[in-house]
Specification:
It is built from 10 helices and 11 strands. It is of the alpha/beta class and 288 residues long. It is globular.
Length: 288
């Protein structure tokens, strides 16, 4: 397994694969890897085969964090990540420092961003106004450097994957984007690097996201048809409020392709929610 830390080095390696016709599977991450990330790595390996190359990027992207967010304390453990990647059969870890990804940013001399202007407006885009500009910019840069045949994203960040898919379509990136299922703990909590922020009292309460999604599915199933979205949102808000440490940021029902909110919730609609558990902000989503 190689570890590459420069943009030029990664692109040189990728161009060599391209010349030889090697398929490249790419999993972009911010590190602090867990079993959910490794499930994406395994999916990438299946897609490119044993003769292909699997690249995992480990980069905590400053452009997607607002000033008041947790960039400085975002968990990092490169030796742990390296060991997991090696065990999973990763061929290359791309782990660049900030100056490699954003030349001139430290001195205020970085001024080019990639912006998706429709799908990124609601939910996470509304709660974190500069977030998706940072996501699409760094993912576009990573695609240029890694030159993947296929990139694998997790379904837990459904809006993010949909925004990136639109960017790939609109800007003609020559790659396939695959969204893999959310990997969960036995009690339903979606695996996330931020779960480690939860203390012993907060961790059991964090399952309220999963329980809220199950409640919504049951409500639609029992209704046998459409359920008013506003009423169902109120039910979920009340359910989340039963947990002392939980505070709802948003809950939304929407079309899974267009991300447009729906007024009536039917089977097949997508549900997304963001909940603070203590000081930790968690997101999750699923099909109703």
């Amino acid at each position: 397994m190689k570890i590459v830390t420069t943009a030029a080095g990664m692109q040189r390696l990728a161009r060599g694969w391209q010349r030889r016709g090697v398929k490249v599977g790419f999993v972009p991450t911010m590190g602090y890897l867990h079993a959910g990330h490794i499930s994406l790595v395994k999916r990438a390996r299946r897609l490119v085969g044993r003769a292909g190359a699997v690249v995992v990027s480990i980069y905590v992207n400053p452009a997607q964090f607002a000033p008041q967010e947790d960039l400085a304390k975002y968990p990092r453990d490169f030796p742990h990540d390296r060991a997991l990647c090696r065990a999973a059969g990763v061929d290359v870890i791309f782990a660049p420092p900030d100056p490699e990804m954003y030349p001139g940013r430290a001195t205020g001399d970085h001024s080019t961003y990639v912006v998706e202007e429709m799908l990124a407006q609601g939910m996470e885009g509304a709660a974190r106004p500069t977030h998706f500009r940072g996501v699409t910019t760094v993912v576009a840069k990573l695609f240029h450097l890694v030159l993947p045949t296929v990139a694998v994203f997790g379904a837990k960040d459904w809006q993010q994957a949909t925004v990136v898919r639109r960017m790939v379509r609109d800007l003609n990136f020559p790659l396939r984007l695959v969204v893999a299922p959310t990997h969960r703990e036995p009690d339903g909590l979606a695996m996330s690097s931020r779960n480690q922020y939860l203390n012993a009292e907060e961790r059991p309460q964090a399952t309220i996201l999963w329980r809220a999604m199950q409640h919504a599915k049951a409500a639609v199933r029992e209704a046998g048809g459409a359920v008013p979205a506003a009423a169902l949102k109120q039910e979920l808000a009340a359910l989340i409020a039963t947990q002392p440490a939980a505070r709802l940021d948003y809950v939304e029902f929407f079309d899974p392709e267009s991300l447009r909110p729906v007024a009536a919730v039917r089977r097949g609609a997508q549900l997304a929610l963001a909940v603070f558990v203590g000081r930790t902000r968690l997101i999750d989503n699923g099909r109703v």
